[in-house]
Amino acid sequence: xxxxxxxxxxxxxCDWSSDVCSSDLREQFKVAMNQYKAAREAAHNSFKSxxxxxxxxxDSSLAAATxxxxxxxAKKNFQDALAAAKSARDAALAKIGAKPTAPAKPx
Length: 107
What we know:
Elements: H1 8-14, H2 19-64, H3 68-96
Helix pairs in contact: 2-3
């Protein structure tokens, strides 16, 4: 009497209610969630850096400005830099996409 033992691949393919498959899905979710969080943090840090650089440039330009026109130009450049930083942040967040969905709890 011989019994064929199922391989891990066969078990996963045919028995989706097993703990092995559920744990695999949970692990995949954890990895996806960590990647999602890291990507959002990178986008946020890039945005903060762009804002800091824009403020520094504005402060330098305002300090050097000797005319009202130069001060107005420094302020406009700052507003343009803010808009560009927001646009870049929004594009990065759109590329990241939606938050991963947790796998359903095993029944």
